[in-house]
Specification:
This protein is α+β, with helices and mostly antiparallel strands and 658 residues long. 16% of the residues lie in helices and 33% in strands. The strands form 7 sheets. The protein has an 8-stranded mixed beta sheet, with no helix packed on it. An 8-stranded mixed beta sheet has the order 29-30-32-31-33-34-35-36, sandwiched between helices.
């Protein structure tokens, strides 16, 4: 049995882990005076602002039992729009006055101010499709909070049948660039369209045979976005007149990801001379600034002119600006174009806001400036390099020859040398499945590694970050080929000289689903399994879960009502093979989960009880798809730690001091 460590590293504990509360969703004031963000307060995320000039304390603008998301500054910087429980609100920047703009039923998300500040565009599914709606932006009246009995009336801008994922106003306010899914025959493509803000007339300008996303405007009316037309996400610029499609990056490396959301989309500089983008590699994300140069276009031949814009390969000069190795996401350019706001995290640093100088534009000698500090001092000391393991990149060859990458954390002393300690390992599949495992701040894994359990993150087929072919490799293979990837990774671990052969599998959401699939696929391999809010019957999940989950299933597996797909849906549903499970299983789930509905765990538990399998289940009544409340994160970590130590180290850990 392992002995719990003592000394300075003991500052790494569940209590110190849950004490970390990183702010999220940073938005920079139009004149760089402050940032708005969300952070936990009294059990729910609330809206705060923090001055970038005075250095004073944060100002809390909302106080609600319901969480706040997606804050957006008005163009004059005097107001903020935000979302609370699918309703859109506006608050003055000092928090003095608050008004609800978009109410239920119908609701809305993704508010975006028009350049003149007089209107809001937002997304709503009140008619079934995710459409762009417009509404006049009222001036908040006195009172906090005030519920306007007669809010302004919204009207739909985009037509039914066009499923919009995001919308961004053009600088002149005459149009919006929308990212939309318009081809039900090909759900792996997304289009970028320009929508007239007055008439709603829609013109598709990119993405007819590729996944194009993350559209942002240059001041001259040209568009910046990412496209996987060549099999990898590259940054592309569409000229203002639509004649040229200018490819700004190249190579077999991802420069974006499928959602194109905030933090992942490329961003033009204020003067249009540069752009910022992300670059994925080795479980990390770098921030890169490129200067825009000239380009070389293929010569047009004689005869009929080609359809659509010509493709131009541009020459750009790249400069990596992320100051240290980690996972970086963009927030925005400051108005002078000399600084970039970004959030960064690493294996030992939680997510925080930084201001990064732009080489050649910022004052000489300018250095990165950390704006927020989320890491408690006790945890900073415990996470000093050398006191916790550092992630190692590994490669596993799957049974069909596909190369899989992952990150391994080994406990101290598990060197693989003769006479060195040998340790058990947890295989960790990420959620999604359209996602990847990042080498970001995951202190719970470091805690378990410190206690004698190795951790292996595996990017199974279907993960992002490795090109379109790899991302599509799990189509029609949910709970099958991707599970074989986990099994093959487990066999690789068992062959390593530092491994004692004991394996557990632990994951959440799609990762939790793969836990159940792995336990029924190779029952003798596993000593334990931990499933956090994972599916057990994917046909029923399609019928009962939320729309985003249904679209994921439809895009990759078809629909359960299609007779040609029924066998694949049943093969991918572990509840029907619960009798094969041999390992003890821990299941944790939120009662308010809309993505993976509680029915999924209820059915799995019923099957486990019928088959008399060893299992534990715990429900969190106020949680949805994950744990927002600190007390629930504490409880979940404690249960998982106890369960894994019991079944991998054959011991029960001591209680942590209050």
């Amino acid at each position: 049995m392992a002995t719990p460590p003592t000394g300075p590293a003991s500052g790494l504990s569940i209590e110190s882990i849950v004490a970390v509360d990183s702010p999220r969703e940073f938005r920079v004031h139009p004149r760089d005076r402050a940032v708005a963000y969300t952070a936990e307060s009294a059990g729910a995320r609330q809206l705060f602002t923090l001055s970038l000039r005075s250095g004073g304390p944060p100002v809390q603008l909302t106080a609600s039992e319901k969480p706040i998301s997606d804050p957006q500054w008005s163009p004059d910087g005097r107001r903020l729009a935000f979302v609370r429980e699918d309703e859109i609100w506006i608050v003055e920047a000092d928090g003095a006055r608050l008004v609800r703009v978009v109410a239920k039923p119908g609701g809305g998300r993704g508010p975006r101010w028009s350049p003149d500040g007089k209107r809001l565009a937002f997304l709503s599914r009140r008619r079934g499709w995710s459409q762009v709606w417009l509404i006049d932006a009222p001036v908040p009246r006195r009172g906090r909070p005030q519920r306007d009995p007669r809010p302004p009336q919204a009207h739909a801008l985009t037509p039914a049948g066009v499923d919009v994922e995001s919308a961004e106003w053009a600088p002149d306010g005459a149009r919006l660039a929308v990212v939309a899914q318009q081809r039900p025959d090909d759900m792996e493509t997304t289009q970028i369209a320009l929508v007239d803000a007055s008439s709603g007339a829609l013109e598709i300008v990119a993405g007819l045979s590729s996944l194009d996303t993350g559209a942002r405007w240059f001041a001259d009316g040209s568009l910046l976005f990412v496209s996987d037309a060549d099999g990898w996400f590259q940054v592309v610029r569409r000229s203002a007149d639509g004649r040229d499609r200018i490819v700004l990056t190249d190579g077999e490396r991802e420069h974006g990801e499928p959602t194109g959301g905030v933090g992942y989309a490329p961003l033009p500089s204020p003067d249009g001379s540069r752009f910022l983008h992300i670059e994925f590699h080795d479980g990390l994300i770098d921030l890169v600034v490129r200067e825009l140069g000239g380009g070389e276009a293929p010569k047009r031949g004689r005869g009929r002119p080609p359809k659509g814009p010509r493709t131009v390969t541009a020459r750009t000069q790249a400069q990596r600006i992320s100051p240290w190795e980690g996972v970086w996401r963009s927030v925005g350019w400051l108005a002078d174009g000399a600084w970039i706001a970004a959030v960064g995290e690493s294996e030992t640093r939680p997510q925080d806001l930084w201001l990064l100088p732009v080489p050649g534009v910022a004052p000489e000698g300018a250095r990165p400036r950390q704006v927020t500090e989320s890491r408690p001092a006790v945890l900073a000391d415990a996470l000093t390099p050398g006191r916790v393991p550092t992630g190692e990149r590994i490669e596993v060859v799957a049974r069909d020859g596909l190369r899989l990458e992952g990150t391994l954390w080994r406990p101290s002393g598990a060197t693989g040398k003769r006479g060195a300690r040998r340790v058990p390992t947890v295989i960790y599949p990420h959620g999604g499945p359209t996602w990847q495992s990042y080498r970001g701040f995951q202190p719970f894994k470091l805690l378990l590694a410190r206690e004698g359990i190795a951790f292996l993150d595996v990017d199974f087929r279907g993960s992002t970050g490795y090109g379109r072919t790899f991302r599509h490799a799990n189509h029609d293979e949910w709970g099958h080929a991707d599970v074989f990837d986990l099994v093959d990774a487990g066999r690789w671990v068992a062959e390593q000289p530092w491994s004692d052969g004991r394996l557990a599998v632990f994951g959440g959401s799609y990762g939790g689903y793969l836990v159940l699939c792995a336990l029924v696929e190779e029952p003798a391999m596993w000593a334990a399994g931990v499933d956090l809010y994972g599916d057990s019957e994917i046909a029923e999940s399609f019928r009962h879960g939320d729309r985003a989950g249904r679209l994921d299933l439809q895009r990759m597996m078809g629909t359960p009502d299609d007779p040609t797909r029924s066998a694949a849906f049943r093969r991918g549903s572990p509840v029907y093979r619960a009798e094969r499970i041999e390992a003890p299983l821990l299941i944790l789930h939120g009662r308010k989960d809309k993505r993976v509905v509680p029915l999924m765990t209820e059915r799995m538990v019923e099957a486990l009880e019928i088959e008399d399998k060893i299992h534990e289940v715990h429900w969190y009544d106020e949680e949805g798809h994950g744990w927002e409340r600190r007390e629930n994160r504490r409880d979940a970590y404690t249960r998982i730690r106890t369960f894994l130590r019991t079944h991998l180290l054959e011991e029960v850990p001591p209680d942590e001091p209050d």
